[in-house]
Design goal:
elongated
Length: 234
């Protein structure tokens, strides 16, 4: 199985979630060069309890020119990271933190994404999450902590007309086999019923909740992705 670093695993999952987040929202457009395209995801999304907007876009310019143009239009993106075929711009705007990722798609094309995180009172959000973690039946908050060496890397929530979607990405120092066994037993103890169950992917149901779990090997242990939808029809 393909192995990758924990950081790369989390970044990959964030982008996959962004692409699947839903319909484009009616948020204000970015100022991009002529001929560019963009789509905004989110509006009802929260990252670790803080509102987040994720946008993807395409620019008909080489990556160096695209980065220079965006830097001029958004001077608050003063931090720059240069990588092979990639440029990352970031910075603070009042109570927002912006991270813009640009990737080369050829000599005259650049694709990118922007994550805008609206910062809130972290202490209040932390207290709320701690109370939420002990609520009966809150599988996504409680289950992974039974895993040895587990760390929460991403927590994303999105309200939809038909219910709530929640996503968590964890890494654990335990083996895939150990993680799979602990999660499977924990769900059964909490009266979840398996609809599909393999060593790497499984789907569980309890009342109007659906839980999709993906387990993958990463450097130093295991990555776990939990996707839960509350309000699902039978």
């Amino acid at each position: 199985m393909l192995r990758r670093s924990s950081a790369a695993f989390v970044v990959t999952m964030i982008m996959a979630i962004a692409v699947q987040a839903g319909e484009a929202s009616a948020l204000e457009d970015l100022s991009l060069p002529p001929g560019s395209t963009q789509t905004s995801f989110g509006g009802r999304m929260h990252l670790f309890g803080m509102p987040i907007d994720i946008r993807v876009f395409g620019i008909p310019l080489p990556i160096a020119q695209a980065a220079r143009t965006l830097g001029e239009r958004y001077p608050m993106l003063s931090d720059m990271g240069l990588y092979p075929r990639r440029v990352v711009l970031s910075g603070h705007v009042v109570n927002q933190f912006w991270v813009m990722n640009l990737e080369s798609e050829g000599p005259r094309s650049t694709r990118g994404s922007l994550s805008v995180l609206t910062e809130t009172d972290f202490s209040s959000e932390l207290t709320a999450r701690q109370h939420a973690a002990v609520r009966q039946g809150d599988t996504m908050s409680s289950l992974p902590w039974r895993l040895t060496g587990a760390r929460l890397r991403l927590q994303l929530e999105q309200e939809e007309p038909d219910g709530r979607n929640r996503t968590q990405v964890w890494t654990s120092t335990s083996s895939m086999e150990s993680v799979s066994a602990v999660i499977r037993q924990g769900l059964r103890n909490e009266r979840w019923l398996a609809e599909t169950d393999t060593p790497t992917t499984s789907r569980w149901r309890r009342a109007r909740s659906l839980l999709q779990i993906t387990i993958t090997a990463i450097d130093g242990g295991t990555g776990i992705v939990l996707l839960q939808h509350d309000g699902a029809e039978s």
